[in-house]
Design brief:
Elements lengths: L2 H28 L4 H4 L13 H13 L22 H29 L4 H20 L9 H7 L4 H21 L2 H20 L1
Helix pairs in contact: 1-3, 1-4, 1-5, 4-5, 4-6, 4-8, 5-8
């Protein structure tokens, strides 16, 4: 049991979820759908984007027992029929979240480098944030609801009826995939490799 990892991961997930979900909302609004604005999601207030199961409970459990990492924010609702370019617009909205994680990883890496000698604790926290942010970018591309990658299935014209059936068991499939296969460890390796590359570039 790794209590330190659980506390750290949940704390960072709260921080990383906010720009991720805000990015979804911002792109959707720019493409003509005001649903996120009407539902109060066009904000950087973390409380507007927390999903207690996905942002707190599951990431704490999976981190505590070393079973990979499973977590997400409260999904941003969008209406593809109000988006410019319809399903292509939906794909752009879906990709905005993982893209924001990559951008935020760059910012955190810069903070870690700048504070390495002055505030080592901040540097360590930021460096962990770089890894987790890149991990979330990869994790969210899994094509299972409620993750962003699942919206690409709709953009690829998967029949909505099949998507809805997949959504019924999406969470269960995610839990089984993370807890019973090596996919979590592979994603962790990819994120760690990307983290090392990023810091090598900034050195």
């Amino acid at each position: 049991m790794n209590l330190e990892a659980a506390v750290l991961n949940v704390s960072l997930l709260w921080i990383l979820t906010t720009p991720h979900e805000f990015a979804h909302a911002w792109v959707a609004i720019r493409l003509g759908d005001d649903t996120p604005q009407r539902e109060g999601r066009a904000t950087l207030n973390p409380l507007a984007h927390v999903d207690w199961l996905g942002t707190v409970i599951l990431p704490a459990i999976t981190s505590l027992f070393g079973a990979g990492f499973l977590g997400w924010g409260k999904p941003v609702n969008t209406n593809p029929y109000r988006l410019r370019w319809r399903l292509k617009g939906l794909a752009l909205v879906a990709l905005a979240g993982p893209a924001s994680n990559v951008v935020f990883a760059l910012l955190l890496a810069a903070v870690a480098r700048a504070s390495a000698n002055l505030i080592p604790a901040l540097a360590e926290f930021s460096a962990r944030g770089v890894y987790l942010s890149l991990y979330l970018a990869i994790f969210n591309m899994i094509p299972l609801p409620p993750l962003d990658g699942s919206k690409l299935l709709l953009a690829a014209r998967l029949p909505p009826r099949l998507y809805n059936e997949l959504a019924r068991v999406g969470l269960l499939l995610l839990v089984l995939a993370i807890s019973m296969t090596d996919i979590g460890y592979h994603m962790s390796d990819w994120a760690m490799g990307a983290t090392r590359t990023l810091f090598a570039v900034l050195r």
